[in-house]
Write a structure and sequence with these properties.
alpha/beta, Uracil-DNA Glycosylase, subunit E, 6-stranded mixed β-sheet, 6 strands, 49% helix
Length: 189
Amino acid sequence: MSKDSKQSRLDKIQQQILDDKVCPDLAKQATQLVFGEGNPDTDIVFIGEAPGKNEDEQGIPFVGAAGKFLNEMLEMIGFKREDIYITNIVKYRPPNNRDPYPDEKQAFLPYLEAQLSVIKPKIVATLGRHSLNCFLPELSISQVHGQPKRLKGQVYLPLFHPAAALYNASMKQTLVDDFTKIPVVLQQI
């Protein structure tokens, strides 16, 4: 499938969320839907939990401080932001940046799965525990971070959320170390 036809299928999924009025209470208080951004032809998709204030304003995931750190780590492993695809489980900003509720994550999951089925990445890199537990609910991020897991033919790479590393120097190094495994895992697949 060409990059353009993948993109047009992603655009349809985005429109579907609006048409289906997913999480109307969240939608009401958000500026806009933050669907996802990047290369639909990529080998790696990063998935966070939900948009924050900057993301809500710009309509793009990971554009705040955590996004800047994510970009730096991508550069360290020879990737640019345009090379990857990035999205969140929940596509609207929760009020006051609270954690997304289980029913909100559940409501958005089919659309996230549809995104992944269009992109067909070799690696799904989960950023933070919400994202990890969406796919692998029985695992704890502190125990499995940086360890690729295969489920139903898909490889998941659990990573700490970049935001967590901004406030904790030791976690920052851990995240950087885990990130450097991405090219290795890609080669092994």
